[in-house]
Design brief:
The chain is of the alpha+beta class. It has 3 helices and 5 strands. The N and C termini lie far apart (45 Å).
Amino acid sequence: MSLLSDLINLNLSDVTEKVIAEYIWIGGSGLDLRSKARTLNEPVTDPSKLPKWNYDGSSTGQAPGKDSEVILYPQAIFRDPFRRGNNILVICDAYTPQGEPIPTNKRANAAKIFSHPDVVKEEPWY
């Protein structure tokens, strides 16, 4: 095998419990994706067990410069098909430090609608 192929297919799960979690969220245009990675000490399968994380929303057009902190709330975890092993992709919603969804966070309103008792009792057609 080539060196590149060896590197691409490198699986470190035999030698370490640490995993790379790639946090992914919708960017400021509402059409772009943003991400950043962090190392976790062990595998995680429940999004509620992952730490919230922040970023500077002024650089993505999602917050004013004077109050630019945006908090990422993990919502779903998927196995990372690029890094492989126990590494994960983490789909996140973005909120203000006060806990309000930022304007590009469309999932927060959708979750509110789909968790309403009248909607929950409906049976999807698909």
